[in-house]
Write a structure and sequence with these properties.
The complex is a heterotrimer. Chain A is 63% helix and 8% strand. By secondary structure, chain A is mainly alpha-helical. Chain A has 2 domains: 48 residues, no CATH class; 286 residues, MetI-like fold (Orthogonal Bundle). In chain A, a hairpin with a 2-residue loop joins β1 and β2. In chain A, α3 crosses α8, α4 crosses α8 and α9 runs antiparallel to α10. Chain A starts with 15 loop residues before the first helix and ends in a 5-residue tail after the last helix. By secondary structure, chain C is an alpha/beta fold. Chain C folds into 2 domains: 209 residues, D-Maltodextrin-Binding Protein, domain 2 (3-Layer(aba) Sandwich), CATH 3.40.190; 96 residues, D-Maltodextrin-Binding Protein, domain 2 (3-Layer(aba) Sandwich). In chain C, strands 1, 4, 5, 6, 7 and 13 form a 6-stranded mixed sheet that branches. A 5-stranded mixed sheet of chain C has the order 10-9-11-8-12, sandwiched between helices. In chain C, strands 2-3 form a two-stranded antiparallel sheet. The longest helix of chain C is centred in the C-terminal third of the chain and has 20 residues. The chains are: A mainly alpha, B mainly alpha, C alpha/beta.
Chain lengths: 419, 428, 339
């Protein structure tokens, strides 16, 4: 403003750094940066001084030492002689397992509950309201502990299955055992399996059977998509849609069935041997409790999001689509859902983020996720608080940022173009 | 025309509607049994409710309020163990509420809690007298003094920092321009708190010792601890969150990057890891020899945690303001800070209140996590109580009580936030 | 404006500067309180009652030290710590000593830089199983589900033991004793393993203690004792000799009942006289008052009294003295002489 009255003078004065708006922003930024660097430097020097006092310099060597403890749920080969590093990987995989499972069930449950809350059946919508309020207003940690306690106290112990006067029995024609140590379900086995291949220099093994199945499944789905696209083209050109569902189904299922037969696929059933059920896949109680509690808790939030999303679409949209002659299911898939999803997806993904972060409460039920291994037992045994906690935070940060990146990508894709 | 047989000259009285469409039956037909699938759903729901009640009621109604140990409960309930053991609640509920706070001073947290309501009333409700707003900024000092006790000069000295900052701004801004004023307003209080506040408060309290019995924060526990951590975190995170939100919206690249980095970092890690930092690392980050107690450290970390979420809430409020408001403020010739203070923030914050309340609910619920690092919040106390030989083995009663208390707190707050949302909606 | 709560709290709660460098003894005296780290709750060893008073065997050690240093057994702040936070709390100076049934191990002593001042309970890791399983030895536990308390040496001992015996097992890690007990009773695990004292304490509170047996195998040595930071030897001496005073008192027959008479005037036994400060100047050498040991013993009684009151055979926990009997009775509890 002052340039109007002052004669234009290009010589630079120090005071212009503060009073000239052209330079002021740069000044502020430089000051902020210096302040930030000073803060970081101060923290680092404090840390260095403190660690020197304690005689514990930062050292990640402990990661290579044998962990010395066992982990019950492990997706990769691990025993007590494996390194702390490997224990951390086991924990990370466990975190991802419960997060993915939780997100799936929370979404399914949340959508059902959100829709039922809008039901015109008074008693059903009331029950759903009670559900939502009950779960939203009690801490998730309490729910996790609660669900665990319910599983432990109400389900039968394996020893109840034993003997002639067994008080409990397996369900689904003797294939599934529900106990208070977890659920044992049949496991897929291959009598002519392809074996495993090592990756990352023998540190992990990936089952070739699984890869083969995934490849065949992917190819089948791709083939079915090609058929559908062709049907779309024919419909657009002639108005008649050829019936393709049996062809598409066959393209997916037949090669898969052939492959499974070739691999000698059969199910391994759990059976009570010794103290425990042996065989089958063991879904441990800690996993189920955490999974269930996180899903139930997050579902309450997702239900609200879904409800808000559906209610956000004005009735006029449905009516207009009806006036165009669309049938109800097409109205849903072509008009209402795309708009509702734009409202629903962003908060939905931030709830996925919350669920993933809440999975760190696994420690309360003894589920060995990364908080339980790296930031739990490893920390306790090695006394390396700084290294383990920072590593753990970085892991969670990486997970969260990847979810956020997906969210931003999606948001940009569906964003309404505004002025 | 004249030989009409019959002409009705008055209206027939209205007939009562069929019994099946009015009253309880009609309501039920409309809301519960319209259609086969709905009827099935209704019946299933009723069966579900019946089973829940049949399982819960006998347990809830067990006459064990006077029992003094789990074994006594078992005797009262007979061999079936059918009932709850409420003796533990009647013996320990004060502890679950106040932790180890000295019983003779229970009035202090209660008063602090009630006064919090008084202080917040003018912010939260339009109908509250406006004059109470004077009390609101004073409350943090007064509330902290009530809870922790000690000499009254400490909170007064802390308060004096703000007064000094205000006057520093007045004086310097008049003499050397508003930016210098802002810098002075930031610098003077910090210098005061760092170097002068302590000695001055000490001197004053030795001259004029006014004070109440000091209570260490270690004595805090139970719901009092949860509420204290939650309220402190929200109150402290509000200004921090506003600054972060403004920084995130700003055009200054480095400032923006710093703010985004902070917000995304905090939001990207679970609270429990931040609490691990509080319990194991914060002392390492501080200058050698610094040592403050764990509850204060937890409050700091929870505040940082809440600030990141608060920043996003405030940013939402800022984004919801029409661009015209910014443009109008610019057109009036207001500078950045004046525009923020007089035009933008009052409106943006008002829109953000529901979000702030739900952030508070979230933080309040998350305070249960402090039990994992060994603080005796309600959940932590439940473990301590179960370690008492008399109550070893008790599960549902304590969890149920804690869940109920949390529900009451959180539910009423979420109702308030919904009321507010409705009110804000109609005002447009 | 509201940022001030934090600053107000800072001033009110007080930022104590200069911790690690200053001598712990001076700090404790200046503070007028001993900060003692205990568990968040373990039957018999440390638990708060309805009024918030802590009680238990470890708590007794804390009170004795407070009485020795400050003359007041009530001048203790009990800081509940978890397995994870206990060492940090001690290393950072948040607590002056840790009495949280912590096993004395090489790495804790040397690598984590702590000084174990003695052993107040000789323990070992044992196994508890329901009687109906018909198991009589830990070697029969192949394939069993084992509940372990995490954050201790237990899980390492367990892994070692089962590995060396070539037995498979399924570990169920659990944070607290209360939850482990719940899982074990419900049959969610076949075996519960932790320190034998903890097992006995847990079993004692069961509805039918007789339905459960402790297996004969003790798979580890768990000398539990109080510890302090490395580097402050004066403070370490005080805690060490307070513990020794409790032990010596039992050996010499000094109890909380007769200590008033014994300390009023020098008696016939010179060691008792030195202990109780009626002769010599042991207290002065230690940097505390002359009647330090008398206060420590009067606080909760001698070692034997503490044992009997909190975890002994007449309590619900009902632990026998066993290894923890005086050396004169065939145990390992042995104090260096007061001379």
């Amino acid at each position: 403003m002052t340039t109007l009255t002052d004669p234009p003078k290009e010589s630079f004065r120090l005071s212009m750094l503060i009073y000239d708006t052209r330079y002021r922003s740069a000044t502020i930024q430089v000051v902020a940066l210096i302040g930030f660097l000073l803060l970081i430097g101060w923290l680092i020097s404090n840390t260095a001084a403190n660690l020197a006092n304690l005689g514990k310099p930062i050292d990640f060597g402990f990661l290579g030492e044998p962990a010395g403890y066992d982990i019950n749920q492990r997706l990769i080969e691990y025993n007590s002689q494996s390194s702390h590093w490997r224990a951390a990987i086991v924990g990370l995989l466990n975190t991802l397992v419960v997060a993915v499972l939780g997100c799936i069930t929370a979404t399914v449950l949340g959508v059902i509950i959100g829709v039922l809350r809008l039901s015109n059946n008074w008693i059903v919508s009331r029950i759903m309201t009670v559900y939502v309020e009950m779960f939203r207003n009690v801490p998730v940690l309490l729910w996790i502990v609660f669900v665990m306690a319910i599983l432990i106290e109400t389900l039968p112990a394996p020893r109840a299955f034993r003997g002639d006067d067994a008080t409990a029995s397996m369900v689904f024609s003797e294939s599934v055992a529900v106990t208070n140590r977890g659920v044992y379900i049949p496991e897929p086995l291959f009598s002519r399996g392809l074996g495993d291949i090592p990756v990352f220099g023998n540190s992990f093994e990936i089952s070739l059977d699984l890869i083969a199945i995934l490849i065949v499944l992917g190819a089948g789905i791709w083939g079915s998509t090609v058929v559908r696209k062709r049907a779309d083209r024919i419909q657009a050109a002639t108005g008649d849609r050829p019936t393709t569902w049996y062809l598409r189904l066959g393209l997916v299922l037949v090669p898969l069935a052939i492959l499974l037969f070739a691999l000698g696929f059969h199910l391994g059933y759990p059976a009570l041997k010794g103290f425990n059920f042996q065989g089958g896949t063991h879904l441990r109680n800690s996993l189920i409790a955490l999974w269930l509690a996180l899903s139930l808790y997050t579902a309450a939030f997702i239900a609200e999001i879904v409800r808000a999303g559906i209610m956000a679409i004005s009735k006029g949209q449905t009516e207009a689509a009806g006036a165009l002659g669309l049938r109800p299911n097409r109205i849903m898939s072509l008009v209402v859902l795309p708009q509702a999803l734009r409202v629903i997806i962003p908060p939905l993904i931030s709830n996925y983020l919350n669920l993933t972060k809440n999975s760190s409460l696994a420690i309360a039920v003894g589920y060995m996720d990364i908080t339980g291994t790296l930031m739990g037992i490893t920390l306790n045994q090695t006394g390396r608080e700084l290294e383990t906690v920072l590593m753990g935070m970085l892991v969670y940060l990486a997970i969260s940022l990847s979810i956020s990146a997906v969210m931003n990508w999606y948001n940009n894709r569906v964003k309404l173009v505004e002025r | 025309m004249s030989d009409l047989g019959f002409v009705r000259t008055e209206m027939l009285p209205e007939q009562a509607p069929p019994a099946t469409t009015v009253g309880a039956i009609g309501w039920a037909r409309q809301n519960l049994f319209n259609g086969i699938s709905n009827s099935v759903l209704t019946v299933l729901s009723l069966v579900f409710i019946y089973y829940i009640l049949a399982a819960m009621l006998p347990w809830l109604l067990s006459p064990t309020w006077g029992a003094e140990s789990l074994n006594e409960c078992r005797e009262i309930n007979g061999s079936g163990h059918g009932g709850a053991c409420w003796g533990v609640i009647s013996e320990r509920w004060l502890q679950l509420m106040f932790g180890f706070y000295p019983p003779e001073y229970y009035w202090r947290p209660i008063a602090a809690f009630l006064l919090l309501g008084v202080a917040l009333a003018p912010v939260l409700f339009d109908t509250a007298p406006r004059k109470l707003l004077i009390f609101t900024p004073l409350y943090p000092f007064f509330g902290a003094w009530l809870l922790w006790g000690g000499t009254i000069w400490n909170p007064l000295a802390a308060l004096a920092g703000f007064v000094l900052g205000y006057y520093a701004y007045k004086v310097v801004a008049a003499a050397a321009g508003s930016l210098a004023g802002v810098i002075a307003a930031a610098l003077v209080p910090v210098l005061w708190w760092l170097f002068l506040a302590g000695p001055v408060a000490g001197a004053l309290s030795s001259i004029l010792p006014i004070g109440i019995q000091a209570v260490e924060s270690r004595a805090f526990g139970g719901f009092m601890l949860s509420i204290t951590i939650g309220v402190t975190a929200i109150l402290c995170s509000l200004p921090l969150g506003i600054v972060l939100a403004l920084g995130r919206q700003s055009d200054l690249l480095i400032v923006k990057a710093l703010c985004v980095g902070f917000i995304e970092f905090i939001r990207g890690v679970p609270l429990i890891t931040l609490l691990f930092v509080a319990s194991t690392l914060l002392n390492i980050f501080m200058p050698p020899g610094t040592n403050f107690d764990i509850i204060l450290r937890v409050m700091i970390m929870v505040t940082l945690f809440a600030a990141a979420y608060m920043a996003e809430v405030v940013r939402g409020g800022l984004a919801a303001l029409p661009t015209g408001q910014y443009e109008a403020a610019d057109a009036l010739g207001l500078d950045y800070w004046k525009a923020q203070r007089l035009v933008i923030m009052p409106q943006a914050l008002k829109i953000s209140i529901p979000g702030i309340v739900s952030t508070f609910i979230g933080v309040f619920k998350d305070t249960t996590l402090v039990s994992i690092i060994g603080l005796l919040d309600p959940l932590g106390l439940s473990n301590a109580i179960r370690a008492d030989a008399a109550w070893n083995g008790i599960v549902w009663e304590i969890y149920g009580f804690i869940a109920l208390m949390f529900f009451v707190f959180c539910f009423s707050m979420s109702r308030y936030s919904m009321y507010l949302e409705r009110k804000l909606k109609t005002s447009h | 404006m509201k940022k001030s709560v934090f600053l107000g709290a800072l001033t009110v709660a007080g930022v104590i500067a200069g911790g690690a460098a200053a001598a712990t003894l001076d700090e404790v005296k200046a503070r007028g309180k001993l900060n003692c780290g205990v568990t968040t709750g373990l039957v018999g060893f440390a638990a708060p009652d309805a009024n918030g008073n802590w009680d238990g065997f470890d708590v007794g050690v804390c009170r004795a030290v407070a009485a020795a240093v400050l003359g007041d057994p009530a001048a203790v702040e009990f800081v509940p710590t978890t397995g994870k936070t206990r060492f940090t709390a001690l290393a950072s100076g948040e607590i002056d000593m840790l009495a949280r049934n912590t096993t004395w191990t090489f790495s804790r002593d040397v690598d984590l830089k702590f000084t174990f001042v003695g052993v107040n309970y000789y323990d070992g890791q044992g196994f508890m199983v329901p009687k109906e399983l018909g198991v009589s030895s830990a070697t029969e536990l192949d394939g069993a589900t084992v509940c372990i308390q995490t954050g201790t040496t237990t899980e390492l001992n367990l892994a070692d033991y089962f590995r060396s015996n070539n037995i498979s097992y399924e570990p169920v890690p659990i944070e607290t004793n209360a939850e482990a007990q719940q899982q074990y009773l419900a049959g969610a695990c076949d075996v519960y393993t932790t320190d034998a004292s903890g097992l006995a304490a847990t079993r004692a509170t069961f509805e039918n203690p007789g339905d459960h047996v402790l297996l004969p195998e003790i798979v580890s040595k768990e000398p539990l004792g109080p510890l302090v930071r490395h580097g402050d030897n004066e403070w370490g001496d005080i805690v060490r000799w307070t513990l020794n005073a409790l032990v010596t008192a039992e050996e010499l027959g000094v109890t909380s009942a007769n200590i008033g008479d014994m300390s009023s005037a020098p008696g016939n036994n010179p060691e008792i006289n030195r202990l109780l400060g009626t002769e010599g100047s042991l207290g002065e050498m230690l940097g505390v008052s002359a009647d330090w040991a008398k206060n420590a013993i009067a606080a909760g009684g001698n070692y034997g009294e503490l044992f009997e009151k909190n975890i002994g055979e007449n309590t619900p926990i009902g632990l026998a003295r066993g290894l923890n009997a005086q050396w004169t009775n065939g145990g390992l509890i042995y104090s260096p002489p007061f001379r």
